[in-house]
Amino acid sequence: MEPVLEVKGLQAAYGSSQVLFDVSLDIGAGAMRTLLGRNGMGKTTTVRTLLGLTPSRGGEVRFLGQRIDRLSPHRIGRLGIAVVPEGRQIFPNLSVRENLTAFAANRSRQAEPWTLERIYALFPRLRERERNMGNQLSGGEQQMLAIGRALMTNPHLLILDEATEGLAPLIRQEIWDCLAALRRAGQTLLVIDKYVERLIGIADRHTIIERGRVAWEGSSAELDADPAIWQRYVGL
Ligand SMILES: Nc1ncnc2c1ncn2[C@@H]1O[C@H](COP(=O)(O)OP(=O)(O)OP(=O)(O)O)[C@@H](O)[C@H]1O
């Protein structure tokens, strides 16, 4: 079956400083892949380039078979890629409910699309906070809201950058439980996070990025069998 996302030899730069040299990866329908690597290795730039926010300088990106590496971020979003960005970017002056409904759409034409009710069932805390403004939420609540807001577009592909960064351990666990539930429900996922041991139990495949190049790629079983690999490149 054709992958949902297929990236081949992706290159990107900020001005004259090249940051991605040759990044290739694919994600099958309903699969979850992680992007791993230390700070500054190019994970966020990879995501920004997929979303059209940083122009690619070479290589190809295909989404559901269609070339997207020359499209605007707006068009890419409409095709059904949603992101939970680093730092969440919740609208501070909109309520939880308004944040969730602001971009609601059915991009992937789901027979049973995400609704407010389903988001509130996934994250009961958001229901309790329904009338609170974005800037009145804890970090964990903001992350739940950012995930809920992305799901409300019913994306073919959901990308999370720094999925659990800066969150308390119990909240981190809630986010991983949510990712596992989404994975079981057939949502295709690309996740950046640092906690390799946890991700091995949830994701299908992993890509380790080192200085803008793929240093290692493989399955959860392969990564689990070789902790030296992730200790070397991720260092936890
Ligand atoms: N807007 C920018 N202008 C110039 N250089 C940048 C910019 N954003 C990132 N970089 C540089 O590009 C490289 C890759 O950064 P990137 O944010 O993609 O890494 P990362 O793996 O996501 O790390 P982090 O977890 O710290 O975000 C780094 O050397 C960084 O300093």
From TrEMBL:
Residues 5-236 form the ABC transporter domain. InterPro entries: AAA+_ATPase, ABC_transporter-like_ATP-bd, ABC_transporter-like_CS, BCAA_Transport_ATP-bd_LivF, P-loop_NTPase. Coiled coil: none annotated. This is Amino acid/amide ABC transporter ATP-binding protein 2 (HAAT family). One of its GO terms (molecular function) is ATP hydrolysis activity. Belongs to the ABC transporter superfamily. It comes from Pigmentiphaga kullae. Pfam families: ABC_tran (PF00005). It comes from the Bacteria. Keywords: Amino-acid transport, ATP-binding, Cell membrane, Membrane, Nucleotide-binding, Transport.
